[in-house]
UniProtKB/TrEMBL annotation:
<keyword id="KW-0812">Transmembrane</keyword>
<feature type="transmembrane region" description="Helical">
    <location>
        <begin position="21"/>
        <end position="42"/>
    </location>
</feature>
<keyword id="KW-0472">Membrane</keyword>
<protein>
    <recommendedName>
        <fullName>Retinol dehydrogenase 12</fullName>
    </recommendedName>
</protein>
<dbReference type="InterPro" id="IPR036291">
    <property type="entry name" value="NAD(P)-bd_dom_sf"/>
</dbReference>
<dbReference type="Pfam" id="PF00106">
    <property type="entry name" value="adh_short"/>
</dbReference>
<keyword id="KW-0560">Oxidoreductase</keyword>
<dbReference type="GO" id="GO:0016491">
    <property type="term" value="F:oxidoreductase activity"/>
</dbReference>
<keyword id="KW-1133">Transmembrane helix</keyword>
<dbReference type="InterPro" id="IPR002347">
    <property type="entry name" value="SDR_fam"/>
</dbReference>
Length: 357
């Protein structure tokens, strides 16, 4: 009888361990750990690859636009760490100075400079370029990073729709004003941040300034990002055999201030936090295009996750690229000629990437 009671007590102890509250706790802990593991793996997947080469760029002169925060700041930080003579071109001088001091402290590179550049003002662009050309006799890397996304409809100081003006026209003028210095410094390179949103964009010849109809994201923003790609491809064509390369990229869906104008996207960022990238991860393709030696001779490509991707037909439209270039020249008041006198004969020919039709 006593043995039976002992066995019953043992069975009761086992049931307490694997049934009731204990069982629920164990099951909850198990699934919590599984979900956490899956979340970690998904996060790692969307963060993407990092640029691991340790090549330095000591003494090379670099301009990064819009780099007091987000992707631009992470880009500037890494370039300064690798020895660049870095010009931070930002609209807000106070915030840029704070970022500059932080970068100097973290990298121990004193050659980091704060310069004011408001891409929504062509006058500011010209003033920045004039000052830079007076200060430096070379420019090795130009990174057109700054941008705005899905803003309420506003006009720039020159009367252009803000997203077209900042994302495309401001950088178009800046790049053209600095082209001769880039050619003089060859091999040199231009990196343009675009977006996969170009897929939704079309260049509206009849309403380029979005005066008749304004859609913040799928209209004006997507058009400006498509303009970035067409501009890069046309630029790479014009710069063939000059030793200057031009490539563009999509940084991914990144947690930056670029989303500050769109409440819906902030909500989506909160809900889908796992599929957004950190600013550091978002900067990796920019760093790849800016630093990797092979881009001394590769030009005209579109990249994401450090991979060259094919473009949709409307981003390869040569006729549209030609029209946009000419129209942009008119809009910014630029009459730039590309002549053979500026070409150097002792540099490696540039291989312009041709997308398969």
């Amino acid at each position: 009888m006593d043995n039976i009671n002992v066995d019953n007590e043992r069975n009761q102890i086992k049931r307490l361990c694997f049934e009731g509250a204990w069982a629920w706790c164990l099951e909850i802990c198990f699934w919590f750990c599984m979900i956490a593991l899956i979340m970690f793996l998904v996060k790692r997947l969307f963060e993407g690859p990092f640029y691991r080469r340790t090549n330095r760029i000591d003494g090379k002169v670099v301009i990064v636009t819009g780099c007091n925060t987000g992707i631009g700041k992470e880009t500037a930080l890494e370039l300064a760490r690798r020895g660049a003579r870095l010009y931070m071109a930002c609209r807000d001088a106070a915030r840029c100075e704070a970022a500059r001091l932080e970068i100097i402290e973290r990298t121990q590179n004193p050659n980091v400079f704060n310069r004011t550049l408001d891409l929504a003002s062509l006058s500011s662009v010209r003033q920045f370029a004039e000052r830079f050309l007076a200060e430096e006799d070379r420019l090795d890397i130009l990174i057109n990073n700054a941008g705005v996304m899905a803003t309420p409809r506003k006009l720039t100081a020159d009367g252009f729709e803000q997203q077209l003006g900042v994302n495309h026209l401001g950088h178009f003028l800046l790049t053209n004003l600095l082209l001769d210095r880039l050619k003089k410094s060859a091999p040199s390179r231009i990196v343009v941040l675009s977006s996969a949103a170009y897929m939704f964009g079309r260049i509206n010849k009849n309403d380029l300034n979005s005066e008749k109809k304004y859609w913040p994201f799928f209209g004006a923003y997507a058009q400006s990002k498509l303009a970035n790609i067409l501009f890069t491809r046309k630029l790479s064509e014009l710069l063939m055999d000059t030793g200057v390369t031009a490539n563009c990229l999509h940084p991914g869906i990144v947690r930056t201030e670029l989303m500050r104008y769109n409440n819906c996207l902030w909500f989506m960022k909160t809900m889908f936090h796992l599929v957004t990238r950190s600013p550091k991860a978002g900067a990796q393709t920019t760093l790849y295009l800016a630093l990797d030696p092979k881009f001394d001779t590769l030009s005209g490509g579109y990249y994401e996750y450090m991979l060259r991707l094919p473009l949709l037909p409307w981003a390869r439209n040569q006729e549209m690229a030609d029209w946009l270039w000419e129209e942009s020249e008119k809009m910014v008041g630029l009459k730039h000629t590309h002549n053979d006198e500026n070409k150097q004969t002792n540099i490696t020919s540039v291989q312009v990437i041709k997308d398969e039709k």
